[in-house]
Write a structure and sequence with these properties.
single chain; alpha/beta; three-stranded parallel beta sheet; two-stranded antiparallel ribbon; 5 helices; 5 strands
Amino acid sequence: RGYYPIYKLKELEHKKIIIPFKNDDKKILRENTVDFISFSYYSSHLTCADPNAYAEKGEGNMFPTLRNPYLKEKESAWKWQTDGLGLRSTLNAFYDRYQKPLFIAENGVGGIDELENGEIHDEYHIRYIKEHLLNLKDAIVLDGVEVMGYTSWGCIDLVSASTGQMKKRYGFIYVDANDQGEGTFKRYKKDSFYWYKKVITSNGEDLD
């Protein structure tokens, strides 16, 4: 918005911290705001005023959250509760707050893939991306949210930053390696690779 939020200025004031503004600093801030906002989205979070609900905490999320009873059937292998509608809600919330174009920098789900005769059938991966793209489309077409672009996480399997595991696979391309760094490191295109290639070619129109 081109200026420091009031709550932050008051916090600094209480701590007796003074920002040494000079001459045109405030004018420079005001006239040089960001052109767009990018963010990563994997799953939604839940909070509740009922302290008894905290017994049902979700597992595996990078940030602790309560278990959403409406998403019990939509958990990843690492117990992340996947929520495509949550992406639509997040897009609307950000756009309403900032009125800036949005860019989804990361979106994906980690799963356990099995190599079978040189093929990897990762239907869960396709299902996740498809649900999120459909909600992305609704945010654009039905809600009027301005979205610049979308990139999934990720193209190729690699060591998961959140768990340090190779077996937690997000990519469209399988890498033959295990958590101990053992394997041929040969790469195989998953079913999701061919599906996502079709999605890109059609600019998101063909999601079947």
